[in-house]
Automatic annotation (TrEMBL):
GO terms, molecular function: hydrolase activity, acting on ester bonds
UniProt-recorded name of the protein: GDSL esterase/lipase
Top-level division of the source organism's lineage: Eukaryota
InterPro entries: GDSL, SGNH_hydro_sf, SGNH_plant_lipase-like
Signal peptide segment: 1-22
Protein family per UniProt: Belongs to the 'GDSL' lipolytic enzyme family.
UniProt KW Signal keyword: yes
Length: 379
């Protein structure tokens, strides 16, 4: 196995959100909104399918409805908070327990409303609506007595809980298939207005603690390099598609400004902006330092080096192409790879990213070192 001890040598962090008033990091529940980067089963349950093996092989030993070989960033984050993995809102099988929160994230989702051609119908506005229905149903059940207390959040969890967001990647990445670079940049304010509307609706419903991830370096995903990076002049010094990364940077600058604006308006709220782009870019640029061997090549795919990605056959699939049967198989050791299937990160990479998030160095406000709540990382 590749060694990742360098990335995790610090096992004790003083962790809290930079806040308008003092509060520790002891959240009773987490409510998560996003896309495949944090989907723990929503799209699979909603559309009635399951990602095939080797998805899930590293940690769960079987497909877990996550688009990863194991755990996602959100899994590591809630685990560090001593909370259980979040059940997907739409997953009704397996006695799901929502006592400590709920995950509304769905793979393929966008901030902008879904269209007839969208991969996922559960866009950000729909996820916010799902949360409102969830909250309403929970309060109804709590009114019926204590027999449901073990399965649903306490009423004050909606006010004291942490609201996490990781969405926007699909709005940008998908746009490159039909729009010019300038058109994509021009669309960012409209995308963020939709996001702002959702945040304001949640605030009006009592949400006060917001943790907002920016979007990662889209140009470093094998899927995008394979499609848009065939002209080597379009690649940056890391071998990533420069235009995709520039769009992500522009989006992130405006998202950061939005977070600062909302914090100024909602002085009783705590809005933390997390710079995922810098964390992931640093991982790709310095992959060997953190125990990885392949920064851009997919672990599970078809075609071999340099990307091991073929858009015609996705991870775990077998297809007949031009009379030849081909299978997109997993690599022997996913911990050596940053990328899992051409689009998503491996568990090992997600673990690294989570450790960096929890260091507090990549957040605005940065995590204060004056809080009494010490967190021991379990990974």
């Amino acid at each position: 196995m590749a060694s990742h001890t360098v990335a995790f040598e610090i096992t004790l962090f003083c962790l809290c959100l930079g806040m308008a008033y003092s509060v520790d990091f002891n959240f009773p529940a987490v409510f998560n909104f996003g896309d495949s980067n944090s989907d723990t089963g929503d799209l699979a349950a909603g559309l009635g399918f399951q990602p095939p093996p080797p998805y899930g092989q590293t940690f769960f030993k079987t497909p877990s409805d996550r688009f990863c070989d194991g755990r996602l960033i959100v899994d590591f984050l809630v685990d560090a908070m001593d909370l259980p993995f979040l059940n997907a809102y739409l997953d009704s099988v397996g006695v799901p327990n929502f006592r400590k929160g709920c995950n509304f994230a769905a793979a393929g989702s966008t901030i902008l409303p879904a269209t007839a051609s969208s991969i996922c119908p559960f866009s950000f506005g729909v996820q916010v609506n799902q949360f409102f229905r969830f909250k309403s149903r929970v309060l109804e059940l709590l009114d019926k007595g204590r027999k449901f207390d073990r399965y649903v959040p306490a009423e004050d969890s909606f006010r004291k809980g942490l609201y996490m967001f990781d969405i926007g990647q699909n709005d940008l990445a998908g746009a490159f298939y039909s729009k010019t670079f300038d058109q994509i940049l021009a669309s960012i304010p409209t995308i963020l207005l939709e996001f702002e509307t959702g945040i304001r609706r949640l605030y009006d419903q009592g949400a006060r603690y917001f943790w907002i991830h920016n979007t990662g370096p889209l140009g470093c995903l094998p899927q995008n390099i394979a499609k848009f990076g065939t002209d080597l002049s379009k690649l940056d010094e890391l071998g990533c598609v420069a235009a995709h990364n520039q769009a992500a940077k522009t989006f992130n600058l405006q998202l950061h400004a939005l977070c600062q604006k909302l914090q100024g308006q909602y002085t009783d709220a705590n809005i933390t902006f997390v710079d995922i782009f810098t964390i992931k870019s640093n991982l790709i640029a310095n992959y060997s330092k953190y125990g990885f061997e392949q920064p851009l090549m997919a672990c599970c795919g078809y075609g071999g080096p340099p990307l091991n990605y073929d858009s015609r056959v996705s991870c775990g699939q077998t297809k007949v192409i031009n009379g030849t049967t081909i299978t997109a198989k997993g690599c022997s050791d996913s911990s050596e790879y940053v990328n899992w299937d051409g689009i998503h990160y491996t568990e090992a990479a997600n673990q690294y990213v989570a450790s960096q998030i929890l260091s507090g160095k990549y957040s605005d406000p940065s995590f204060s070192d004056k809080m009494p709540f010490l967190l021991k990382l379990k990974f």
